Amino acid sequence: MWNPNLDNRQMEKRVVVGRVRPTWARNLPEVRDDDDKSEDLGAMPHSDPPSPSEHWDQHGKPDEKYDVFGKVMLLGDSGVGKTCMLVRFRDGTFLAGNYISTVGIDFRNKVVTVDGIKVKLQIWDTAGQERFRSVTHAYYRDAHALLLLYDVTNKTSFDNIRAWLGEIREYAQDDVVIMLLGNKSDSGLERAVRREEGQRLAREYQVAFMETSAKTGLNVEAAFAHVARALIAKANPVDPSRLAVRAHPTQEQRSSCPPCS
Ligand SMILES: Nc1nc2c(ncn2[C@@H]2O[C@H](COP(=O)(O)OP(=O)(O)OP(=O)(O)O)[C@@H](O)[C@H]2O)c(=O)[nH]1
Q1: Are 106 and 235 in contact (CB under 8 A)?
Q2: Region entry Disordered: which residue ranges (predicted)?
Q3: Which of 129, 139, 163, 203 is the 20 to 30 Å CA partner of 63?
Q4: Is residue 184 in contact with ligand 1, taking CB distance under 6 Å?
């Protein structure tokens, strides 16, 4: 269940930033976006997130317009860009500056269409800070897919990926879809982790890999499309050959090696 003790911390955070806004809205413009975009049939998140096992129906309610449902968690050290990745994917925007660490966990929905199949992604943005780990662990078990991020300008966040993969092995389902993302690939000279290092690590753990930029949008759609395809393949195990699990990168994205598995 949602930990009520976190609410106090959230309130502290809200006081610090001088705004009374739910966690998921911390980087968003004041006016809430409409939810009726054609590719976006999902509901806005609650300020009280559901328990880890709610909204778990693989096919969703019959009256909702999607074919496959999947819970996707964004994981990785604090500051690697998980929230920015979600905001870029969901809203197509990047709000630089005013970095405020996520408190607890929250989610947003987006329906994407891949290969003619509508996939509702319920995307959970987790807090990278160590003190929230016990909260996020409770949500691993129900996740269908995990996007594990590091920051290409922060070697420590890359070195910690092995520890994250260890946690995933401990707490997530064995068949969870995992994708490694080297975020902030727009950062040029500040880069501390070479693309090849990310590729090598992904190959070692047999997970897909891309470098992304929440700032420019590079590979953000492609990463979620890859996850959506993998979820479709999982939901249709009787005829997996019918579905292309591979991501289809654009020319610019090809060297990002999706998927390395
Ligand atoms: N240059 C660049 N900066 C980015 C990118 N993505 C995120 N940032 C910046 O990195 C900082 C942290 O981003 P967040 O999305 O809040 O990081 P987070 O992983 O959610 O952090 P926690 O909530 O603490 O776990 C912010 O200042 C962002 O503006 C990116 O792709 N490129």
Answers
A1: no
A2: 26-61
A3: 139
A4: yes
Greatest distance between any 2 Cα atoms in the chain: 53
Q: Which tokens is 96 given?
A: 């630089």
d(CA 52, CA 30): 28
Is the per-residue pLDDT at 61 higher than 80?
A: no
Q: 200 C-alpha to center of ligand 1: Å?
A: 24
Output the CA 216–ligand 1 centroid distance in Å. 12
Distance 203 CA to ligand 1 centre (A): 25
> Tell me: the pLDDT tens digits for 121-157?
999 999 888 888 888 888 999 999 999 999 999 999 9
The order of strands in the sheet holding 208-211 is 105-114, 117-126, 68-75, 145-151, 177-183, 208-211
Q: Which residue has the higher pLDDT, 224 or 237?
A: 224
Q: From the CB of 82, is ligand 1 less than 6 Å away?
A: yes
- pLDDT exceeds cutoff 50 at 189: yes
The model's confidence at residue 73, banded by pLDDT at 50, 70 and 90, is: very high
Contact 106/24 with Cβ under 8 angstroms? yes
C-alpha 249 – ligand 1 centre gap (Å)? 23
11-22 pLDDT per residue, tens:
322 222 222 334
